Amino acid sequence: MTKTQKQRDKHIRLALTNACEAIKESVIGFDYLTHTIDLNNEANTLKVQCYFNDDIALESAKPQLNELTNIILKELSSIKLNAKPAHISFSAN
User: Which residues contact 63 (CB under 8 A, 6 or more apart)?
Assistant: First the structure.
C-alpha cells in the first residue's frame, strides 16, 4: 500500500467511524458497520455492511434505513468518495 493509499484508507475509516457514531446516537439497536474497498477502484468496489443487534432491532429500524444510508453517503461525499445506496447493506448479528 502506497503512502497515498494509506492516507486515503485513513480518511475513509474516519468518515465511516463518524457515520457509525451518528447512527448509534439516533437508532436503538444499531451495533456497528464495517467496509471493504479496493483503493485502486474505490467507486466500484466499496461495500459498507451495517449490523444491528438482532432481527428485532433491524425490523424496527426499517423506516429509518434511507436516513441511515444518507448519513453514510454524506460522510463519504465529504471526503470525495461518491458511493451509491447500493453499496450499503443492512443485516442483524
Answer: none
- Distance CA(53)–CA(44), nearest Å, equals 28
Query: pTM here?
Result: 0.95
The dihedrals phi and psi of 59, each to the nearest 5 degrees, come to -60, -40
Chain-centroid distance, C-alpha 45? 13
Strands, DSSP E only, in 1-93?
Answer: 30-36, 47-52, 88-92
Each residue's pLDDT tens digit, 65-93: 999 999 999 999 999 999 999 999 999 99
**What is the rounded CA–CA span in Å between residue 93 and residue 2?**
34
Q: In what helix (H) or strand (E) does residue 69 lie, and over which residues does it extend?
A: helix 65-77
Which residue has 436503538 as its cell numbers?
28
SS3 82: coil
1 touches 26 (CB < 8 A):
no
